[in-house]
Structure formats: structure tokens, C-alpha cells
Design goal:
The complex is a heterodimer of chains A (556) and B (342). Chain A is mainly alpha-helical and 556 residues long. Chain A has 20 helices and 8 strands. Chain A has helices spanning 3-16, 21-28, 40-62, 86-96, 101-128, 137-159, 164-179, 184-192, 201-231, 251-276, 282-285, 304-312, 328-356, 372-391, 394-401, 405-444, 468-475, 499-513, 522-546, 552-555; strands at 32-33, 69-71, 83-85, 245-250, 318-319, 325-326, 446-453, 459-464. In chain A, helix 3 (40-62) packs antiparallel against helix 5 (101-128). The two termini of chain A are 53 Å apart. In chain A, 39% of the residues are buried. Chain B has 2 domains: 3-174, no CATH class; 181-326, Rieske [2Fe-2S] iron-sulphur domain (Rieske Iron-sulfur Protein, 3-layer Sandwich), CATH 2.102.10. The longest helix of chain B is centred in the first third of the chain and has 31 residues, at 36-66. Classes of the chains: A mainly alpha (556), B alpha+beta (342). At the A-B interface, helix 5, helix 7, helix 8, strand 4 and helix 10 of A face helix 1, helix 4, strand 3 and helix 9 of B. Bound molecules: protoporphyrin IX containing FE and FE2/S2 (inorganic) cluster. The site of protoporphyrin IX containing FE (HEM) has 27 residues of chain A, from helix 3, helix 4, helix 5, helix 6 and helix 9.
Amino acid sequence: MSTVVDGVGKAIGRADDRAPISSLLKDNLRKVFPDHWSFMLGEIALYSFIILLLTGVYLTIWYQPSMQEVVYHGSYQPLVGIPMSEAYNSALHISFDVRGGLLIRQIHHWAALFFMAAMVVHMFRIFFTGAFRKPREFNWVIGGSMILIGLLEGFAGYSLPDDLLSGVGVRIVAGIIESIPVVGTYLLFFLFGGQYPGHDFIPRLYTFHVLLVPGILLASVGLHLVLIFYHKHTQYPGPGRTNDNVVGFPLFPVYTAKAGGFFFIVFGVTVLMAAFVTINPIWAYGPYVPDQVTAGSQPDWYIGFVDGALRAFPNWESENFLGHTWSWNILIPCVLMPGILVALLLSYPFLEAWITGDTREHHLLDRPRNAATRTALGAMAITFYGILVINGANDIVAQAFNLSINQLTWFTRIGVFVFPPLVFIATRRFCLGLQRRDRDLLMHGRESGQILRLPHGEFIEIHTPISDDEKAVILAKRDIAPIEAPPATDENGIATPGLRAKKWRAKLSNAYFGENVKRPTLAEIEAAEHHHHDEVAHEIDVLHEAGAPIPSELTD
Amino acid sequence: MSNDHKTDIATTGIVEGDIVEFPLPPHHHRLTDTDPRAARRAERQVSTMFILSGLCIIAFIAAYIAIPETSYLNLGPAGTIQTSNFMLGLTFGLATLLIGIAAIHWAKKLMSDEEIVDYRHPVGSPQEDRDAAKAAFDAGVAESGFVERKMVRRTLLGALALFPLPLIVLLKDMGPLPGDSLRHTIWRKGSRIVIDVTGQPLRPEDMQVGSLVSASPADLKAIQEADGDQNARAKASIILVRMKPSDIVSEQGEGWSWNGILAFSKICTHVGCPIALYQQRTHHLLCPCHQSTFDLADSGKVVFGPAARAMPQLPITVDSEGFLVAQSDFQQPVGPSFWERA
Ligand code: HEM
Ligand code: FES
């Protein structure tokens, strides 16, 4: 026995007298987790978050959240003698006069980008595999909220150095707040402690960034993980995998090593990125001055879709009869559009459950093709989002492809309505096609590509049956039939309560599932297999009679 | 299947197809399970990575001591980079990465890779627990008298409803009320217009046709120092352009320009970015943030982009000493729209 193991054993023994550690360990040490690359996306988000907490604390050691004006005297020559805020001064100090400070800043920024990207891709995985279904709806809501909160947190952090680039971003947000009806002006004055930019905003943003939001995120991450632990992880369909079991490797030791090791890999890659690739070179932008701007200014990618919408939206503004201003050109793209998007996102599991009427627990993941309409909706949402992100960089895209901003703006304005439905239709068709192919594979096996000419001149293609592993995956599909609208009145002539909602539901249900390809029943498969068998037997007979050699594909 | 609750197809649409279960495929042993030499090799690989990781940490400390943060490394096309950033990141990153790769290699090659099966149980509490919880709750409610003692209940709810108000009221002093501060800038009748960078007052002769100057009121510096913030600057910055008087199509007010010299706010009416991209041929001013474009020869009108309102024009003239000055403050609020703007 190694001393380390002995020591841990003794420590647990002592702790056990004071808290029921062993009872906890007994149930959980060998907890089973299934293996799949797509299950690592959430891990990347989690580890990036831990890296953010660690590096963030280091940054707070030197960072000064103050808008007080100071004159720079640090070792970055081009800025010496320039007046700037203490915040910017301290961010420069971290970058040039704290050894390893730049590294920490860059790790922090890269980790923030990975954190957001991992959360978003993780969400795609959850969505397309239906992992959000009962009993995991609450975790979907927590996850979706974390993306939103992460976005605000990232924006806040990005603004802390108070450089010219991020300062312009804050100016834009202030302008957006001003556009909010009735309370906008007051909100602006309360948030900024008076007129823009004032001298309160950076200190307030700092508390938000290092205390309030990390606290909320930490609590959310904790709850998210507790629920994952309690629900046990979902798994993909396959041989031996059912809705009632979970097949994989134990938490200890395999996942301790794999997941623990993966933390170090994520951390290592982030550090190497920070070592080699400069991110957010604040010294190149200069200090924030409210009447200066850098050309081609870009927010971090996760803000891009709002910026893209803001750029493309027509310049509508109107006044109400009291002379108040409605800034539709800002309200719709920056407040309404993201609001609707978030509401749809957070409520999706409940909408889908209402449409399917499905109240069962789901622990076996859907293959995206089997939920054709859901998959198509997801693809449609991604298209919508993607077009806006691209338009968020329209000046750069225009330059790169030699287009005019005008052309691009119109492309976005029209494209954002045209492309998502097209992608929806194409994706849905594609999924239904795959469903059909699956059905064929079950019924008739796979075309081997081998053409056989029978002695009497007929050509046949040899079909080989698919393996049990493949069958297990395809047969895991559970069909859902569209719900029918109830009659307006029951047999006693009494009006059906909530008829309109029920009719809507029937319509949606039909749109969702009306065209789904039914999984064959076992009887159908058996019949098909018999038929196939007979056919092969017949072919062998024919070949035999003709005295021709019999290919091995037929006899296997 | 524990989850195959009896369901009614007509209302739920769920079709319970036949459930076919396939057994777990047989386990295949790895080379490291069967060949002790392969296992030892894997063990050596893992340990080597741990050792290398430790060496990287030592290298990190050496680099921390040896490399001053003022030294730079030229990476050719990838640009110049702080040597200390590069070396510290490289050593620490590799040390971290090696631990990760070693641990996963260990798990994959040497720990059991036989899949094990665990069973799920319905997630919710069993019915007897629900009943017991409800009974406990009901007992508590009954003992508290929350239902019968209406007066206590109602006054409690009333008190709790008022309780958060101080927390909201206290927020009032987060900032002053807007008042009419958004309607004014520090421009006044006779404010001298100075070049922003140098602080030099401007005469009309200093500006050639086609030129653009970023400018501000002469007293901006003093006001900014007194206020200790950049609020005045954020609203008062202007641009001056000079064009042929015959090119001017329209202005926001009669006599607001001086011999083809026009002054406009520099703050975009969309969401407030400062603007300085000017095409002298078309007299177009382009905002770099969302590409709103304003025609300065035609009252600063929006010709393209998401901004809804023309760029506010500052009426200017020339004072007795021949310097450019403002005739008054802006006649409308500068910057983004707001609810009370009108
Ligand atoms: C999910 C969590 C977080 C995200 C997404 C995030 C994001 C960011 C970003 C993008 C920056 C700009 C970095 C740059 O200068 O390029 C930043 C700066 C900063 N962050 Fe965070 N952060 C997070 C958590 C934290 C935590 C937990 C702390 C402290 C306890 C922290 C402290 C700081 C400080 C002090 C700065 C300013 C330092 C500087 O920019 O030089 N952050 N953050
Ligand atoms: S701020 Fe100028 S176009 Fe948006």
C-alpha cells in the first residue's frame, strides 16, 4: 500500500466519525458514466469556468477598478505620458510590468471565449439529442440561463480594461439602454451614476464581474452538476443500452483519471493559446476617450449576433402622441429579438412536451434524424443566428469579399427571413430520408454493391443483413404519432374545454410527427427476413441448377 | 420497462413499439491486458510524461527568474511577442497538458475498460414519501393556524409585500435624475472652437475646402478638470468640415455655417459612437460602428444605415477677432434617441 492511499484511508476514517463520508462514497465512487466524445463539451465549459475563477482572482490582485485619471509611466513606451483611467493603467501594468501578468490576462480571455463556445456547442448537443426531455428540463433552463449570464459576464470583463475598443462597446450599450421606453433614461443615469460615462461605471461593473455574476454562475454550475449526478447521465442507443440502465465506466478510477486528465488538457491548451496567440491587445487600442473610435471595432464573438441585428435593422423611429420617442431601430434588434430568442430557448422543452403529450422519462438519447422537426428547428435557429453573426462583421466581410455594405445589409435583411425556413425544409427532408434508409436497412439489409447475374439473365443485387449493433441503434427509435384534434363537442353535446388550444396542439403535433417514418414492427422485420431468406434460397437453387459457383455473400 | 406508463395514444400520440433488447457486445481485451510487456511499456510512457511535466515546472521557474518582461521575441510572420509570456506559457502549458495526457493514457491503457452496467430508478420520490411529506406539511399548516387566523395571515402577507421597498428605494441614489441634462452640452453663444488635439483656436482661413477637423469648445479642458470626468467631452465633441458653399444643399438652420464651414456633432445619433470617417467628394460622414452614413451637405441627413436622425448641426459664426465660435448650444439633444427626447 502506498502511503498516499493509506493516508487518504485514514483521513476518511477520521472524517467519517464526524460526517457520513463512507455512506456517500459507497453509493457514488463507482457511479457509472457513459462514454462519448459529445459528453465532453459540458466538461470543457466547466473547466474553462474553473480556469476563469483561478485566473480572475490573480487579475484582481493588480487590477484597479477606477476611472480616476492618471498619467502612464509604465514600461510600454508608446503610451508613456498619456492620460488614462486608473483601470486602463492597471491593465497595462498587468500586461507589461507584472511578470506572467500578460499570460494570466490572456489565459483569462481565451478561457472566456472557450467557456462561451463550449456552452453553446454543449447546448446544441443537448438539443439535437433530446437530452432536455423529462426529467432534465430544469437543467436545460439552468444551462440556457448560464449562457445568457455568461454573455453578460463576458461583456463586463471585456469592458473592465477601459481601453478604446471596449469603451466604444460600453458606449453602444449605454445607447441601447437609452432607447428603452419610459425607464431608459433613468436606467442609464442610475447605472452610470449620472451622465455617460461618469466615473462610477467601471467600479460598479467590477463588483458585477468579480462578485455578483461569478456567485450566481457558481451556484448554477453546482446545481447543474448535482442534477446531472442525480438523474444519471443519458446515453446513446446501442446494444445493451436501454432507458433503464446506464452503461459505461465507473467514476473511480476511470472517470477520475479521464475527466481529471481532461481538465489538465483543457487548461494546458488554454495556456498554450495564451502563450502563442495574442488576444485583446489593449495597448494597441489606447485609453478610452469618448470622442475617439477604432475602425473595424468588433465585440467578442458571443455578442456578435446582437450587433449584427443592430447593423441590419432599418432606421425606424416614431413618436407617440405625447411626443415620446420609440427607437424601433434599437429596441427590436437589441431588446425584443434577444428577448424572444431567450424565451423560446428556455421554454422549448415545455413546448415540445406539450406538443407530444409525452410524460415519460427519457434517458436514452434521440438520434437527431428521428426527431426530424426538432432537428430542423435547431438548424433553422443556428442559420438565423449565423447570418446575424456574419452581419455583425459586415464591414470586415465587405472588405474581404469586395462587396458593398449596402449589398450585405440587404442580403442580411432578406436572408434572415429566407434562409432559415429553407434550411428547415432541407434538414427535415434529409432527416426523413435517413429515417427511411434506416427502415430499409432493417427490412432489407444493406446493398452490398455486388450485382449477380442469374443464369436466366436476371440481375439481382445482393443485400447483406446489418449487424445486431446497428439494429440495436435503429430499433431504439420510439415512434410518436400526431395527436388528433378533439371534436368540438363530446357525445353529450358539451363543448370540449380548451378546444382552441387543443386544436393548435393537434396542428403542431401533426407538423412535428405527421411525416415521420414508422419504425417497422418486429413482425414486419421478421416477415421481411423470411422473404429475404426465401429469395436467397431461391437464388442459390437457381445457381446450383445451372452449375454456377455460389458467391460467399449468399451463403453467409 | 419502468417508464412505460399506460398511455393513451389519442391524447399523447405515443406509440409503444415492440422493445427489442440486444445484449452488450462481448468485451475485447486490449494488448495491455494480455501482454505484460505492453502494459509495462504503457506504464513507462505514463511515468515519462509525469516526469516531463515536472521538468517543465522547473523550466517555468527558471524562465520566470531569467527572462525580464521587457524582452521581446520575433516570431516572424506571427508577429512579436513578449518572451516571458511565450516561455512561461509554453512551460506551464506543457506541464499541464502532460499531466492530462498521462492521466488519460493511464485510464485508457491500464485501468479496466470493461463496461459496467448500472440501473436507473424513477427520478421522482415514491408515492409513500409524497404522502408523508404532504402529511407533514399539512400538520405544520394546521399547527400554525395559517388558514384559520385570517388576520395574521393577511397582515403577514401585507408586511412581506412592503418589506422589499427600502431595498428598491435605496437604489435611488445610484445616480442623479436625468432632468434636462441630456438636452444641453457645454457649447454656449460665443464658445470658441478649438482643434481638439492641440487646443488651438481656429480661423476660417485655417481650413481648406475638403478638410475635416475634430474640434471642441475652448473651455472643455477646464470643465473636464473641474468635473473630474469625461461627461462634457462625450457630448460636446464636434467635427468641422469645409466645402464649397455652392455644394451645400441644405442646412438645419439659416446662417448656421460660415463660408462653407459647417459644424456637426461627432456623436452618432444611432447609439452614440464617435464618428470621423469622412468622404470629402460625397460629403458623407460614416459611422464605423454600424455604418450609418450622414450627408453633411444636406443637413446631416441619414442616407444609409440604422440611425434614424440627422446629425445635429452646431450653428457657428466668426467673432470680432476672426475666430470660429458657436452661435449657441445645439438646438436639439446630441447622441442617441431617448424616450423623453421628442
Ligand atoms: C464566467 C466567468 C468569467 C468570464 C466569462 C470573464 C471574462 C472576462 C473577460 C473577457 C475579461 C477581459 C480580459 C482582457 O483584459 O482581455 C475579463 C477581465 C477581468 N476579469 Fe473576468 N471573467 C470571468 C470571471 C472572473 C472572475 C471570477 C474574476 C475574479 C474573481 C474575474 C476578474 C477579472 C478582472 C479583475 C478583469 C480585468 C483585468 C484585465 O482585463 O486586465 N473574472 N474577464
Ligand atoms: S452608433 Fe453610429 S451607426 Fe450605430
